[in-house]
Request: fold
Amino acid sequence: MTQTELIPKRLDGRIAVITGGNSGIGLATAHRFVQEGAYVYITGRRQGELDKAVQQIGRNAMAVQDDVSNLADLDRLYDTVKQQKGRIDILFANAGVFEFAPVGSITESHFDKIFNINVKGLLFTVLKALPLFQDGGSIILTASIGGSKGFEGVSVYAATKAAIRSFARSWTVDLKNRKIRVNAVSPGAISTPMASSTGMGLSTEQFEQLKTSLVNAVPLGRMGYPEEIAQAVSFLASHDSSYITGIELFVDGGIAQI
Ligand code: NAD
Reply:
């Protein structure tokens, strides 16, 4: 039996939107959703990367280029979905950026950039999708272990992720009458372009040092794969999690649990 045959078809016929779907966790989740039977719209900043991602996914995927912090881009995204499919069943609000900024070197532009994309962008990604949701949909927000742990030099990024975790709690209540479930997924250290020396703005040596110290603190003793987040997200998207809402699901090899 091949791996594809083992994957359940829990998302048959569902329409899904994944922001930041051309890379890393978002791309792995787009693959997984399609394997489970969904049609996915992926978004991201770079058209070339989006085109490559659609090719890789191979079927039932369409790309819409956007910047989630630009509300007109979000309107264009949801207009496209409305015209083509008329509804959304699953939203994975996942786009985000990371930058180091030790306390002494935090600037206004660092704060504005990270909060605009990670918090304002995610907020309006969800709000503008709501008119297209039918009762009973699932919204999953990408938070991070950084939202509940203290790591050196990333306080502003961590604060954006704590805000996202808080959104999941509040929207669970705000959307209860529409039976829309809202959950956060919190990845630990996952091998993606963001968690690389280039993505973190570190030299190869600095990155390897950081990786070794992180991995030593992870009970499962390694970084995670984007596919391992995708598995958790498709569980939260599917009926298998029908009585789960408002949670933060850590997929972190145990690092935030000890
Ligand atoms: P990645 O860099 O591979 O992917 C980030 C995605 O977000 C890309 O598709 C990019 O195009 C998109 N994006 C960034 N800014 C955008 C914007 N303004 N508008 C639209 N799209 C934008 O990184 P990843 O690791 O897959 O990150 C995905 C999410 O997971 C992020 O929210 C990140 O904070 C979170 N996360 C990652 C890790 C990790 O270790 N990789 C850990 C915890 C949380």
Remarks:
- DSSP finds nine helices and seven strands in the chain.
